[in-house]
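re: ur question from yesterday

yeah so i grabbed the chain u mentioned. its 553 aa long if i counted rite. heres the sequnce exactly as i have it in my notes:
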Amino acid sequence: MSSRTVIYPARMVHTMDPARPQAQAVAVRDGRIRAVGSLNELLEYSDCVVDERCLDKVIVPGFVEAHAHAGSGGMWDSALYVGYFDRTDPAGKLWPGCPDAAAILERLREAEANLAPGEPLKAWGLDNIYFPDTRILARDLDSVSTQRPVQITHANGHVSVVNSLALRRAGIDASTQVEGVEKFEDGTPTGELREFAALGLVQELFGPGLLELSESSLRNFAQDAVNHGVTTITDLGSMRPLSEQGRRDYADTVDEHFPVRLSVFQFGMGLGDGPLLEQAAQRLAQIRELGHDKLRFGHVKLILDGSIQGFTARLQEPGYFTVRENGIWNISPEEFEEAFSAFHRAGLLIHVHCNGDEASELFLNTLERVLTRYPRPDHRHTITHSQLTTQAQYRRAAALGACANIFANHLWFWGDQHAQRILGIDRASRMNAARSALRAGVEISLHCDAPVTELNPLQSMKHAVTRLTPSGRVLGEFERIEVYEALHAVTLGAAYMLKMDHEVGSLEAGKWADFAVLGDDPFEVEPERLGDIKVFGTLIGGVPQSSCQHQES
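ran it thru and got these structure tokens back, copy pasting raw so excuse formatting
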């Protein structure tokens, strides 16, 4: 027997459904949208009740975040934040940014004084690119401690720096030949480790990684999502889904009462080759049936290159602005094609990390070869980050049916550095080219990649619409998109590339009643203020969820 219909009138409802783009109210029954329309229209439905909690608010579809990491919810407890920008944790606590290297080292010393003897000190959020005259390396961390291992992971997650004690204990010295172990001219390691092969050398010293999954991290992650209007989110790159215990680690917490829908992508590297890889692909296809409405398994993430601001992304000519060396492949082209082909043939959705345009080119070349051998309609394989994807590459992506999950947040957090030190103004003005992607006919979304940047789709919209940098520069005015296009990208666009657009992403009869409750209308505020719009909470499956920052919802 069906429950009663609950009608939520609002100041404005933006549905993202072109058939009925605006409404006065949403009617919900049994967790799904029964109808949208005027209040009078919806009152015609039988056995209904009006809930006025959103009466003076604006309702939009719940935001869909197609690139984030669930372990980010636990980083606030397991490591110290030392980033350049202010950040707010899932509990609503503001962490001031560190404006210079001295402030970072002082914060580290304060934390070090409170640790037990021998306990490693872990921090995150560093980016030396903000401090052109001071680069924090092992010798600087030695001033924090010479008695315990110290590690700061860069904001991009692809680089870290450790102190001299950590280098010695890991056996890293002038003779170490692992790619990514940075050295001075005399061969002495600097303490900086770039990309996964080098980072793995010190992994045992520091215990569980920063993105370690736990009940606490999952619940913090979910609260962070609610705080910012997100109702569907990804854990993009987990090693757990292939094992029964790993799936249970999610399922024990993500139950029917969990306040967000979670799509878990298996990290598709390091699973072996040949028959082992084929078995893994087939097993991932099978476990798609083991999830439920709040928890999805069976998608895959691969990583091609590294970080642009870390100079480890793979760029085509003319390369970087100030250095001649190119970046680092995290998987060889041959291994990538073998893995991509296996997962594609198993019917899986694949999202591939491509920051540089050389990585995008390899993705497209591989996709074309694999599709030629194994045609598959509606695959929706996605270039994630897609920061330097070119006009020609977007035209190819459209022809091949690929999507682009664009990291527009970079325009704010590293835009000035990209223009001045990393890429040069011409190439920086072309990065995160959302307008070009749309013009080519590519479905796009915008993402935060939490913890790399704060989980906040409204901020991502602002960055794609304004392309402003902290200095006030508009970095590539002709790549700006409209507010409607940005809102589509963080709702239906993201849902499409998760193959969930039939369930979420717009407010339509039959879809899940997932929506965000906002204090202002995104179409009425100045574009520069999009990120300042208050989120009062969400409804997921018709169940209200409160933002810890705005409890009156």
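noticed a couple things. Residues 110 and 425 are 39 Å apart (CA to CA). also Residues 357-373 form the longest helix (17 residues).
anyway ttyl
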